[in-house]
Amino acid sequence: MKKLEEIEIELNSLHNRARELLRQWELEANQPYISWAQQLRADNIKECNLFISREELLSALPENSIGAEVGVAQGEFSLRIMEIVHPRMLHLIDSEQISNMRIRPYIDSQNIKIHRGDSGTVLSKFENNYFDWVYIDADHTLEGVKRDIVAAKDKLVDGGLLIFNDYTCWSPLEYLRYGVMQAVNEFIIDEGWRVVHFALHPLGYHDIAIRKPDKASVAGNLGVPKSGS
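RE: above sequence
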């Protein structure tokens, strides 16, 4: 117990020092250390469905669809996608080797294809209007998220979904600035996409899904929760 108390005292000291450094940085830079995202309007979220987790959000994606996961890590969430969504094809895109052997049966049955490389470069090789949805969980810097948005948006069918993990401006577990919220909000406001799904996370690493405008004004059931979900 004494050891824990000593660690707690040291952590509090580090937190206080971090706050002091943040204030110094903001005074020198004359701007907030954590950039505020643009405020969304009511009409941006009027179609939004709320979910208790990102796994529950997956139940709103259409079965037999074509999707991509950008930023895969060890592929654990990829398995959840396969188990819940049952996509016709899931493209896994990551700069690192994906070594989860539990994915192998899906690769053998040609339901998963792995692409190793830079997300923007890999996405550029797909035809436009190819994906029903793209799940983005890669570079969390403002510039990185913007690059992935630009690379993915034209690859979606009309009414398709861009889904972003870690929709926040600050990572409490890493003490890092995230650019996801800022990049996504700017894109929603500038391009007129609508928020259709929002999934909560206990530590604030929320998920958000935005829908590509349907030029034909026929969105079908894409992105609408399946009955009974």
